[in-house]
Design a protein that fits this description.
By secondary structure, this protein is an alpha+beta fold. The chain has helices spanning about 25-30, 50-65, 80-85, 130-140, 155-165, 245-255, 275-290; strands at about 15-20, 35-40, 45, 70, 90, 95, 110, 120-125, 145, 165-170, 185, 190-195, 195-200, 210-215, 220, 225-230, 235, 260-265, 270. It has 2 domains: about 5-75, Alpha-Beta Plaits, CATH 3.30.70; about 85-290, Ribonuclease Z/Hydroxyacylglutathione hydrolase-like (Metallo-beta-lactamase, Chain A, 4-Layer Sandwich). A hairpin with a 5-residue loop joins β18 (about 260-265) and β19.
Length: about 290
């Protein structure tokens, strides 16, 4: 729970605030950009929410915050409003889970809702464990498969796997066997999990990083690829490359062979565009990476 005594001085006066435990994961700024800002290595409130919808998004940010660094006037707001908003529908049958985990440095996780005949629902990376979120997953059909993009964002995967009896999918080179993963992916070749799900190994950020392509439309990228609002194109994170930048560049080039409209990362910004424009952005990103 956020502490008023630790309230950052950069916060605008008012009910909502961020305290000094903030780890600058960017979640609150994505969820409620009209309320939170980056003031340099941490977030703060630059404008107090005014409308019911702004309050709702600020409460969603409070719930999603992995370090409980967002606080509000005691007793004035019902935080269940924020909790009940998750998982949040992003497009068609793809949801953002919320409840970001500190152990994943606030990484985003996603749920793909699919009928049993199509293999059931897919959880992409793990949020922190929450009984409220578990109940919502159950209402949406449970979890049949959990895809883990890389070792950094596994969070509470074991608890979710036990609760739903789902199979986990992860690459061998990020310690999948050690984590008890049921379906271990090996090598560099793409693996088809189902008619509409393809695992594509993309070593670079970590040795065993992999992305998941759904319906040739949604690309779940972990920490491998995201949208840069500053550069207005796709980007990779040079300062957060734990294995090999050269490998990550080659992995990005291999993604040029695939069509997608959405990039849904664990860290960084979500983006949607036409497949043609996405390919242009990806090509520009590869050229930029080669120059780094």
């Amino acid at each position: 729970m956020a502490q008023p005594a630790l309230r950052l001085p950069e916060n605008l006066a008012g009910d909502f605030y961020v305290d000094s435990t903030c780890i600058d994961c960017d979640a609150c700024r994505q969820i409620a950009p009209g309320t939170f800002r980056d003031h340099g290595d941490q977030s703060s409130v630059f404008r107090q929410p005014r409308t019911d919808e702004e309050v709702r998004h600020a409460l969603m940010a409070l719930v999603a915050c992995p370090t409980s660094s967002i606080g509000t006037a005691r007793g004035k707001y019902d935080t269940r409003i924020g909790a009940e908003a998750f998982p949040e529908l992003l497009s068609e049958n793809v949801y953002y889970c919320g409840f970001n985990a500190e152990s994943s440095f606030g990484a985003w996780s996603y749920l793909i809702v699919r009928p049993e005949g199509e293999g059931g629902n897919v959880l992409v990376d793990s949020p922190r464990y929450s009984s409220r979120l578990v109940n919502r997953f159950e209402e949406l059909g449970g979890v049949g498969t959990m895809f883990l993009t890389h070792r950094d964002d596994v969070a509470d995967h074991e608890r979710y796997a036990r609760r739903f009896g789902c199979r986990r999918v992860m690459h061998a080179d990020d310690g999948a066997a050690r984590l008890g993963v049921e379906h271990v992916v090996e090598g560099r070749e793409a693996v088809r999990l189902d008619d509409d799900l393809i695992v594509i190994p993309v070593p670079g950020h970590t040795r065993g990083s992999a992305v998941l392509l759904y319906r040739e439309k949604y690309l779940f990228t972990g920490d491998h690829l995201a949208w840069s609002p500053t550069r207005q194109t796709l980007t990779a994170f040079r300062t957060a490359c734990w294995y090999s930048w050269a490998e990550q560049t080659r992995s990005m080039e291999r993604l040029l062979d695939y069509r997608f409209e959405w990039v849904l990362p664990g860290h960084g910004r979500i983006h949607r565009d036409t497949p043609e424009r996405m390919r242009e952005h990806l090509h520009a990103c590869v050229e930029w990476m080669k120059g780094r």
